[in-house]
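Reviewers of the previous submission asked for a worked example of the structure-prediction workflow described in the proposal, so we include one complete record here. The input consisted solely of the amino acid sequence. No template or homolog information was supplied to the procedure at any stage.
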Amino acid sequence: MSIVVSEFEIDEAGVATDVEYFNEILKTGVENGCSDVHIKANSPATFRISTALQSLDFVPTQEWMRNVIKGICPKHLLPGLEADRETDFSYAIHGVGRFRTNVFQALGRWCIVMRYIKSNPPDLAKLGLPPILSEIAESERGIILMAGTTGSGKSTTMAAMLEHVNTMFRKHIVTLEDPIEFVFEENQCIIEQREVTLDTMTFQRGLKSALRQDPDIIMVGEMRDAISFKASINAADTGHMVMSTMHTTNAASSPGRILEYFPPEERESVRKQLAGTLKAIICQRMCPKIGGGMVPAQEIFLNSPTMRKALEEGAFGKIPAIIEGSRDEGMQSFNQCVYNLCQEGIITKETALEKATNAQAVAMMFEGIFLSSGGGITG
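From that input alone, the workflow returned the following structure tokens.
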């Protein structure tokens, strides 16, 4: 018996067998500490383990890839995959974990890239993150943004912050994700996790609906456009706490990047709204630890009165100096963070220089020369 789904017209027995072997590949990867899995037709299956790519002997065919995609892709996404040649979803294996999955075509060949997500949300302290993140997570209202490049651990840190709230407080949390990564077990909180295309059609529609669901915290998987940002600002304006991620290389540049989503004539009003609703921006870069493993370096932006004034005036050029000079309030720059991680024996000096925003400034710090927030030198 065959199931007809256009290109995915394949035999049921073949699907079951190939998915079974595919699951064994994923299990092997997890057992060996992989973070990502790359599988595509006519190329060796490959794991990313501690930042390095390691290939297997197995080389899948295009037919095998079709069978696996048919078996793991949610059925409601198959028509869209057929039309668009790419889709995202989450895939779970009992006893192994969940995988954030992207299926796409390259040179006409099917490809699957998966990010391994441990089943249980992590603990903030075990991730080696500063205590200020617990305080940020406990905020009653405002916008909290996790920033960084792909693979920088944004989702993991945000999940850890939500799990801290779930452990310590009685609140109602609504998440909007594409796809769902960490699955939360209700502890103190009531939690509804909604997946885009499965439980709601778009982030925008889900966010609008969430405001009618009596939430204390709304987590939006990623801010992608002006509509998402505007809706989040409005939600924060009405007393909710909104958490989300965005792709920027440092916290200091994030407010300017947000405004770029909006047309020029709207930016002044949005900037003033943002100055009133933004709570914090945490930007991450993953660093290899001495002895193995990874540790996040973080730049932390807090919307202090001084920072709010800079945002209101559009004085974005002052933001890096405010961050550097506000350690006592919980802020820190990437330069300060990687220098401290090196001094604590967690990362090497070479890694600190590589991950710094300004390698020359960090090199001076190692020589005992520190630039003050006002541009002077201390030592």
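The longest strand covers residues 278-288. We consider this example representative of the routine output the project will generate in years two and three.
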